[in-house]
Amino acid sequence: MSLATRQTATESVAEEEKPHPRWFDWVERNAVPKRFDFPRPKREVTRWQKRGPMSRRDWVRFYRWAAKNATPREIPPPHCPEQPPAKVEEGKKKKKEKKKKTYTLAELLEHAAQISEPREPRDKYVFPPTPDYPYAPKISLKEPAKKDPGRPFQPIKVPKWFHHLENETEFWSTLRFPIFRPALNYKPTANMLRLALPRMVPPLRQHCPIPEPPIEFVAPRRRMTYRQWREHLRRLEYLAKPTARPYYVEMYDYVY
């Protein structure tokens, strides 16, 4: 026996004795195509749908049912009177006209005033007083806003009219506005002082001197072409000639 035949024999025996993996049984069980076999429900036959001939008892029941439900119904005849109804007189058909009641002018005005009054009258609306919002400046973002008890100041009471111009000038000249005491000790920054100055035009530190505007605008001269110069001479020659009025010349010769 050769070495090759021995190896093949040992391999075949090893393959036969090799155990199946764990998932082999699950694959064999679930890899088969699923069959849908739904049993058909049995039809329950009624007593009138039985197969085969009916019994005597069934025929008796059927005739009883037919005698009760299969007979035609007797429709009652329509109710018709023997004589047609007599025509009612035309005068009785007419309804009695209601007499319209007349109202006087005083009654109409009283009714209109009664309708115009509201069912639930309300009082006149009174506007609420304007709220007094105290001045609370927020100087720093870290600190909360501090309220000043003296603000806002009461508005100045100005009379509606002045009897004379001198009274008005005296009122405005002697008027003094209240000043907050901490405001007297405030020191403005250099930037605020610079912004408070009036704007100077031109600026104080100008980059270069501004040229003076010309007295009269003179268009710059441009050199004419030969054609333009020739047309210009023709125009001057035409304008230098006297105005010709042949109609007036003929009239002058005819008269004189």
TrEMBL record:
<feature type="compositionally biased region" description="Polar residues">
    <location>
        <begin position="1"/>
        <end position="11"/>
    </location>
</feature>
<feature type="region of interest" description="Disordered">
    <location>
        <begin position="1"/>
        <end position="20"/>
    </location>
</feature>
<protein>
    <submittedName>
        <fullName>Uncharacterized protein LOC105228554</fullName>
    </submittedName>
</protein>
<feature type="region of interest" description="Disordered">
    <location>
        <begin position="71"/>
        <end position="100"/>
    </location>
</feature>
<feature type="compositionally biased region" description="Pro residues">
    <location>
        <begin position="74"/>
        <end position="84"/>
    </location>
</feature>
